[in-house]
Amino acid sequence: MKAEARRALRSFAIELLLYGMLIAGYFLLVLHLLGPSLSGIAKNHIRLYALLAVALILGQSIVLEFVTTWILRLLRGRSE
Fold it and tell me: What is the mean pLDDT of the chain?
């Protein structure tokens, strides 16, 4: 049972580290590429900005989950 707990804890730590790196990269990418556009939309069209913000959040969560799952499967396949 301890080996399973260690494996689960290791997997969780790797996933947490991956999430952190991917979220930081996503934030910097959006800030750099979409920051000025989103700022202008926020000032002039607040409802459109709200919809775009929700769409970005949903898109980020879907893509982040897909990428993290793919990376973890890749790592588990090589380690087992």
Answer: 85
